[in-house]
Design a protein that fits this description.
This protein is of the alpha/beta class and 325 residues long. The protein has 13 helices and twelve strands. Helix 4 crosses helix 6 and helix 4 packs parallel to helix 8. The chain starts with 5 loop residues before the first strand and ends in a 5-residue tail after the last strand.
């Protein structure tokens, strides 16, 4: 039987702040199989990006602490890796498209310097022992893949000379150039217009088919997740509340929060009213002791307030963390 590429087990993480400890991740279970396209959806502030940064171990050590859990990547626990080992994983195995391209690019180096460095130090270039001309040719090819015009000129440009959408596409090109096993795409359509966003999502989908790489797509655009992912996780206030094959999740949502998210999608047909979810994500300094969705749930029971619900298998591949089941 094939082993998971990535398996996050019961992950708990806290941030140290002036008022105490923010209990952000509350037992995250998350699995990615080789060659799989996985979606991750949920409200802003629910912990999606924090979970992915935990996998790459790029959160500030002085402010964050994993208090429990494992992150198994290709059979090894990332949390127990040495500094050298995790650097190799970031450089050769896992890449991430961050949501804010301005913060991801160094303003004092040209796009060419930064993109070519990524290619130069990636596993592919070392294996093939390619020279500077080949590295530059690969950089130009990457920029063409993400639909950037005049890539030769782009290589000589500084980030400040590009629009937000162009900077985002440069970040995507960097991720495409270095990924071998897993790419994490955190809102890759940020700052992109509709046409380019569609091209980028199709490019990521084709990447899976052609190379066998796995992708985690974090997005608020549920339509994008529905179109290109195989399986989708729904996250709320620091833990997963539902997971299923994408088609099954959209056709048969079970968790009250998942139903609320889908009801909040605008309908282009004009039929039916868009409904928001009442209330707010709870504060992480003193979150609810049981199900964190309890204060906002119309179907809540007494047990929901007292105990956190475990994942329950409802059907093949469809699990939900809710006491209703």
């Amino acid at each position: 039987m094939q082993n998971p590429l990535l398996n996050t087990k019961d992950l708990y993480l806290q941030f140290k702040v002036y008022g105490g400890n923010l209990k952000v991740l509350n037992g995250v279970d998350f699995t990615v199989w080789p060659g799989e396209r996985v979606g991750l959806v949920g409200e802003t502030g629910c912990g999606k990006t924090t979970t992915m940064k935990s996998i790459l171990r790029v959160l500030p050590v002085s402010q964050s602490k994993v208090t429990k859990g494992e992150i198994i990547f290709k059979g090894k626990d990332i949390l127990k890796m040495s500094k050298t080992e995790i650097q190799q994983v970031r450089k050769e195995r896992i890449s991430m498209i961050f949501q804010d391209p301005t913060a991801s690019l160094n303003p004092v180096f040209t796009i060419g310097n930064q993109l070519q460095d990524v290619i130069k130090f990636s596993k592919v270039s070392k294996k093939n022992n390619i020279g500077n001309k080949e590295i530059k040719a690969q950089a130009i090819a990457m920029l063409k893949k993400v639909s950037l015009p005049d890539p030769e000129r782009m290589l000589k440009s500084f980030p400040i000379q590009l629009s937000g959408g162009m900077r985002q596409r440069v970040c995507i090109a960097m991720a495409l150039a270095s990924s071998n096993d897993l790419m994490i795409a955190d809102e890759p359509g940020t700052s992109l217009d509709v046409t380019i966003k569609d091209q980028i999502l199709n490019l990521l989908s084709e990447l899976v088919k052609n190379t066998g790489i796995s992708i985690i797509l974090i997005s608020h655009a549920l339509g994008a997740v529905r179109n290109i992912t195989d399986r989708t996780y729904v996250m709320y206030a620091g833990y997963m509340v539902e997971v299923a094959k994408t088609k099954e999740l959209f056709n048969n949502p079970l968790h009250p929060y998942t139903k609320g998210l889908l009801n909040a999608i605008p309908r282009l047909t004009g039929k039916g009213k868009m409904k928001g979810i009442s209330g707010y994500i709870p504060g992480y300094l003193d979150p609810p002791t049981g199900c964190r969705f309890y204060p906002r749930c119309q179907d809540a029971k007494i047990v929901c307030k007292k105990k956190k619900p475990p994942f329950i298998k409802v059907s093949e591949g469809h699990e939900v963390a809710c006491w209703l089941f």
